[in-house]
Amino acid sequence: KAGVTQTPRYLIKTRGQQVTLSCSPISGHRSVSWYQQTPGQGLQFLFEYFSETQRNKGNFPGRFSGRQFSNSRSEMNVSTLELGDSALYLCASSLRQGRSYEQYFGPGTRLTVT
Amino acid sequence: GESVGLHLPTLSVQEGDNSIINCAYSNSASDYFIWYKQESGKGPQFIIDIRSNMDKRQGQRVTVLLNKTVKHLSLQIAATQPGDSAVYFCAEGGSQGNLIFGKGTKLSVKP
């Protein structure tokens, strides 16, 4: 069974631009969560989608948004990019929503904002 | 302002020795804990999990111990191998269903 895939793997953007990242979960997994990983803050939860609905949200500004499609694929968007948005963005999928379910991570998208 | 790079605790062990990685968690109400391994250039990989109704759980070469009294979690790796070199994160299940990650420990295995 194929793992979680994320595209693109690397991205360079300029301040003020917007970016869209894509995540394809493991087949059969309906929950997709997004995390931001930086050297300063570590791994931080952005949001979770299940059945095309955002179920949970972390403490990030409204510039960070996402959506999930009927095939469970998910995208996240960051608008008006700032230098501090440079990070590894990780997507994780799991069978079901909510607590206590094993999450499988993709390789991440490395975003650099200049 | 400029962000400061996170200084990860580092554990260096000799190949074949046992490794113990420790983690303190914050929420006494957390009922689910996981250890992840992250190799350079890759996403975190699930190692082992434990629920709060257990004190110990064993996997292949790994054991997780949970001490709820002092909110402490540890991961023991038996007969550590060079392939075990990575950053190890503990995570607790958050109230929103998300995972709350610790800062990580970098394990280096000397051949």
Give a verbal description of the structure:
The complex is a heterodimer of chains A (114) and B (111). Chain A is mostly beta strands. Helix content of chain A is 0%, strand content 53%. Chain A has no helices and 11 strands. Chain A has strands spanning 5-7, 10-13, 19-24, 31-38, 42-50, 53-57, 64-68, 74-78, 87-94, 104-105, 109-113. In chain A, strands 2, 4, 5, 6, 9, 10 and 11 form a 7-stranded mixed sheet that branches. Chain A has a 4-stranded antiparallel sheet with strand order 1-3-8-7, with no helix packed on it. In chain A, a hairpin with a 3-residue loop joins β4 and β5 (42-50). Chain A starts with a strand and ends with a strand. Chain B has strands spanning 10-14, 19-24, 32-38, 45-51, 56-58, 62-67, 72-77, 86-93, 99-101, 105-110. Chain B has 111 residues and is mainly β. In chain B, the strands form 2 sheets. In chain B, strands 1, 3, 4, 8, 9 and 10 form a 6-stranded mixed sheet that branches. A 4-stranded antiparallel sheet of chain B has the order 2-7-6-5, with no helix packed on it. Helix content of chain B is 0%, strand content 51%. Chain B contains no helices and 10 strands. The interface between A and B is medium-sized, with 30 and 29 residues.
* Apparent shape of chain B: globular
Relative helix content of chain B: under 10%
Largest interface: A-B, 30 and 29 residues
Strand content of chain B: over 45%
Poorly predicted tracts of residues of chain A:
none
Termini separation of chain A comes to 37 Å
Arithmetic mean of pLDDT of chain A: 93
Give the termini separation of chain B: 41 Å
Radius of gyration of chain A: 13 Å
The largest sheet of chain B is: 6 strands, mixed
Number of strands of chain B: 10
Oligomer: heterodimer
What's the tally of helices of chain A? 0
Offer a few descriptive terms.
heterodimer; A: 114 residues; mainly beta; seven-stranded mixed sheet; four-stranded antiparallel sheet; 53% strand; B: 111 residues; six-stranded mixed sheet; 10 strands; 51% strand; globular; disordered N terminus
